[in-house]
Specification:
This protein has helices at about 75-80, 85-90, 105-110, 120-135, 190-205, 255, 260-285, 300, 325-340, 405-410, 415-430, 435-470, 520-530, 550-555, 560-575, 575-580, 590-600, 620-635; strands at about 5, 15, 20-25, 40, 45-50, 55-65, 65-70, 95-100, 140-155, 155-160, 170, 180, 185-190, 205-210, 215, 220-230, 240-245, 310-320, 345, 350-355, 375. With about 650 residues, the protein is an alpha+beta fold. Bound molecules: adenosine-5'-triphosphate. Adenosine-5'-triphosphate binds near residues 26, 108 and 216.
Amino acid sequence: MAQRVAVSDGANKKATRVRVAVRLRPFIGQPGEDDDGPCVRGLDSQNLEIVNWRNATETVKYHFDAFYGEKTTQQEVFLSSVKPILPHVLNGQNASVFAYGPTGAGKTHTMLGSSEQPGVIPRAVRAVLDLVSAKDGDEGWDYSIDMSYLEIYNERVLDLLSPNSQDLPIREDKDKNIFIPGLTHISISSFSDFDNHFVPASLNRTTASTKLNQRSSRSHAVLLIKVVRTQRALRQRQQTGKLYLIDLAGSEDNRRTGNQGIRLKESGAINLSLFTLSKVVDSLNSGTATRVPYRDSKLTRLLQDSLGGSAHSVMITNIAPEYRYYFDTFSALNFAAKSKLVVNKPFTRETVAAPVLPVCLRSEAIQRRPRGSRIWHRAPEENFEQLRQPEPAESQESAPFSLYPTSVRAMLSEPSVMDRLVALERLMMSCQDGDGLGMLKDMAQSRKEIQELKEKQRELENKAVLFSRLAGEKSGPKAEPVFRNTVAPLQRKQPSAANPPRQQAVVQPLQGSVSVSDLQPLQQLAVQVKKQSVCVRRKDGKRSDQKAETEWESQLDTSILEQSRDKILQVLNAGSFKDLKGLQQIGDKKAKLILGWREINGPFTKLEDLAKVEGMTEKRFSSFMKANILSAMGKRCAVA
Ligand SMILES: Nc1ncnc2c1ncn2[C@@H]1O[C@H](COP(=O)(O)OP(=O)(O)OP(=O)(O)O)[C@@H](O)[C@H]1O
């Protein structure tokens, strides 16, 4: 067989954006749970709003490519977000659809669905098969389709079509294609071919019951559908398009999931990979990063050619309406808003035959294969794209799945991320070469990031405690609901002369028929937050009752002062790591803490919010304000 070489495709390298859709699932009450109504709702087909936890009389609005409300059907989601990208796969381009969001928010429902309401995966596979059969005999190309199915569980890549497989490596070929040597590929030519393999393999996926979801996915599941088209007249011309359909595991707050033991370990790996995913998105967005940290987790390494790479990507962010999901929803929306900025450059992957020596293929035993289908295995050293070769027909019945139950796999020794790092470190200590040192550095960086992740988790847990404590306090005066299920505008504070009206969210009546009671928890939270805020001079000129205005500030022109404050706020909200470090008194650590705070809580509504960032005492905040206002005004020496 001739080796294939990639041909350049400069002409059709056209940048496309990652399409970001948000899907809100219907309200699902828990036994004994008070119905506090939704904390988030759609405004129209692209916009939604969520209550602002800092001030329950306000909302934060988001704009996405699509917003799907509680009543949106599986068919509608597929037709508007997924179907349009499928034809690209037949032209040798990559495409990916992935569902992101907190645990229990509807990712598996969206991707997999049920027999009554099939989700994106079955619909997309059927559509690809239909597209290919419509092409048959047309245009002089032959098409073949194959499927692979894997999960990333505790940072291990497991072949769901070969349940006894070991952790598989992820590699990149010289043309920057990501591939997995040794992964099973099954040729499919009809939907029943696909179903015969996919359904039993799905049962191999690691799931477990947590407090938040009875059947929670504990792994990231990736279905790969590969379409190869070969020109009939010139057999050496071949194009390969890959479609990734990915059901991510949910981000988790372990205080609420009640996770312990192995569930806690899984959760650590899930959160770590999702954290890395958000870092990848961050660095793609900044456009200045020299190293996008794809390699920091298996998930991001695998997504390398489907996110920020060369694929048409669709991210469906699933969110839940209940208040108990509030912080998860907020951070999922912020993550989704960031992803919208990622630009992909899809291009056709075409190879031509090159006159080289034939390559011997490793013959491998077929693990499991229903009648009539072909399975291709690759030796680890083989090039996935170049050395594809069907095994000769062979009949062998599948091994019984009961031999490999999920629970057994879950209980197999699962070293924690830290254990693995320690083991790796030991291994590296015995290595004297430069590569070893490089890996040690990477490891130190990973440890640091794990530490940061832990801190972030601690912070979230503290917030959850505060939130649930406040939710439990029902004795105080009842507050007005923010969302009503009648035609009701958002409740707002009455503006007064001394307190001019702030720009408020425009609110449409609620979609659907979710009933709303009181919003006590959020409103109390807002009051609490207010008490903590640092007092500064108010627009009406009155001084705070807690703290006297500083001398230096009173000597400045009010409008210039306001402009400087706005400028600083802008940097805090939109600035990159580098921009933040450009501020006075902000070093590496503070800049990171600010980015972290922003990611979890969204933009700072006012400068005083900065005092809520870890390590920012009132004194430091005042000193920060003084230094930066003076710096912004270019009057460093103007006042005492
Ligand atoms: N749009 C929807 N319509 C009806 N039911 C839904 C919808 N979305 C989710 N559900 C239901 O909500 C529950 C949780 O959904 P699902 O298991 O898909 O969440 P998940 O995000 O995949 O969770 P995890 O990350 O824990 O696996 C399921 O019972 C599911 O059927």
